[in-house]
Specification:
Length: 193
């Protein structure tokens, strides 16, 4: 999503670099033109006509020297501008290379972020499923524990009932045996054995 912004920013920076590359040449030319205009429009001191003829030869010579000096200055400014342009182009290449590297890294990081976000959502879903499964198992364990307790209570009650019935049965057997024993003795006494 940010790649279009980066491309737009890079295009603006390239345009600015192109426009600023020759700025010094334009400024030097403007200064030269201003100087030339000021030399041609600046009136000299009032000189008598005889001196004007003598000065005319000198003015032409001084004007040609001034033009030579101005041309040399322009050449020097042009050479400086060319050197500056070369440096700027080198910097543009380096910055463009760095920008491309960073854009590639950004793209790779964006993909990695997307992958990690998907993995996180899958893990969160698995965790929810696992929590739900654990809750179900915990409930099942609770139910089994409750059932075990109720069966243990029933077993204890059944054992208590069994003990009581055994005691009661033993008492009945003992009373029956005693009664049968008395009957047998009564029969033996009656028959006088």
């Amino acid at each position: 999503m940010s790649s279009w912004r980066a491309e737009y920013l890079a295009a603006l920076q390239a345009r600015d670099a192109r426009e600023q590359a020759n700025k010094e040449v334009y400024d030097a030319y403007t200064r030269l033109a201003d100087r030339a205009a000021s030399l041609s429009t600046t009136p000299g001191p009032k000189v008598p006509k005889s001196e004007k003829k003598e000065k005319a030869g000198q003015t032409v010579a001084s004007t040609s020297v001034a033009v030579d000096v101005s041309a040399a200055q322009v050449r020097q400014n042009l050479a400086e501008a060319q050197r500056s342009r070369g440096e700027l182009e080198t910097r543009i290449v380096a910055v463009t290379s760095e920008l491309e590297k960073l854009q590639l890294k950004s793209t790779m990081d964006s993909r990695r972020i997307t992958e990690l976000a998907m993995e996180k959502s899958n893990l969160v879903k698995k965790l929810r499923d696992r929590d739900e499964e654990l809750r179900g198992k915990s409930k099942l364990l609770e139910d089994v524990h409750d059932e075990t307790l109720s069966l243990t209570i029933e077993l204890n009650m059944a054992e208590d009932t069994n003990k009581k019935l055994k005691l009661e049965n033993q008492e009945l057997v003992d009373r029956w045996m005693a009664r049968k024993g008395q009957e047998a003795e009564a029969m033996n006494t009656a028959s006088k054995f």
